[in-house]
Amino acid sequence: MLPAEIIALKRDGRPLPPEAIAAFVQGLVDDSFSEGQVAALAMAIYLNGMSAEERVSLTTAMRDSGTVLEWDLPGPVIDKHSTGGVGDNVSLILAPALAACGAFVPMISGRGLGHTGGTLDKFDAIPGYRTSPDLDLLRRVTADIGCAIIGQTADVAPADKRLYAIRDVTGTVESVDLITASILSKKLAAGLDALVLDVKLGSGAFMKSLDEARVLAQALVQVANDAGCRTSALLTDMNEPLASAAGNALEVRNAIDLLTGSEIDSRLWDVTIALGGEALAAAGLKANAEEGASAMADALQSGRAAEIFGRMVAALGGPADILSRPQFHLPEAPVIEEIYHGDEGFIEAMDTRAIGIAVIGLGGGRRKASDKVDYRVGFDWISATGRHVDREVPIARVHAASPEAATLARRAFIDAVTVSQTPAEERPLVLERIG
Ligand code: URA
Q: ipTM surpassing 0.90, yes or no?
């Protein structure tokens, strides 16, 4: 079929047969679909949607547009994907903890998107760590150590790379069909047996409501399972940063503190354990998610997860003593100041997106793709909602490149936090399970 015929089918609200989808994906890779034709089809999909069968065809064709990893390992190959949030450093803790429970985790991660942080940017804060190794090194580190967290290489789902870049500038990012195919094509190319999805909702997530998050989670779970990967999703709260830190080096430090037991953020711990429990059950390593969660807790408390994290960092080029001397290796900002709210009372709500944007304002994220990231900056000591604050108790600390940047970020953080005279009701952290 000609590109124009394929576009016209979807323009008229008709389903695309698998051969039309295959031709489109081929056209993405070999440029036989022009940028205008890709944009037109993306918009037609955005407006008219896809059936479950079309979503599976698109996802698997995009998965197969590059290398699909195959494994021969003495345990299941599993992974997690988060739809993105602020202070979300779960992957740094989860991957080594799953590996400590007998799984293998080749985690292909992304950079920050919009106001959200990206796992890859966090690892780039570790001097020497190679976030773009070739697939052979990924294979070796995963097999030898149990997990490897790296970025997308040119060989993985190249069709998504081109489609995503065109969607980004044509108002077609926010399509459940296209988001599903984009996320899963990359994850499934890693040759997974099982996958757990963390679909976030709230002020710091892309999905603001439970309904929106549920629709995306259902699409992701259905397509991934139909494509042969056992998958479930948890819908989790992102109405405040998950960790008490937001910013690349600060989140690495925060994850190391949890792994080594020196300081544990309870919300981060709970979400990590819940996701890990789901993944271990889906992979068949544990009978159910509860048993999986207790295996995760044991992997963390025993120090086995920390040891695997340290070995992974060293194997990918980072310092061998990152666990014992993180302060020696992680870059530190020259200006560090405490932030006080001014009002006395209980933290009621946070505009978490605004906090993510304040991190970008400090230089800790990108306004455009070519921006250089300052890994040192961000916030830590972020108080959880419900906490009582006054003139003596800071709501956070800012880490900035200059006093001027610190002042702007302090103002933005204070504006993002609502303090009230009565404690707010506690919100559930895991709202729903889909799968
Ligand atoms: N993340 C992706 O990888 N793709 C999307 O379309 C949205 C989020």
A: yes
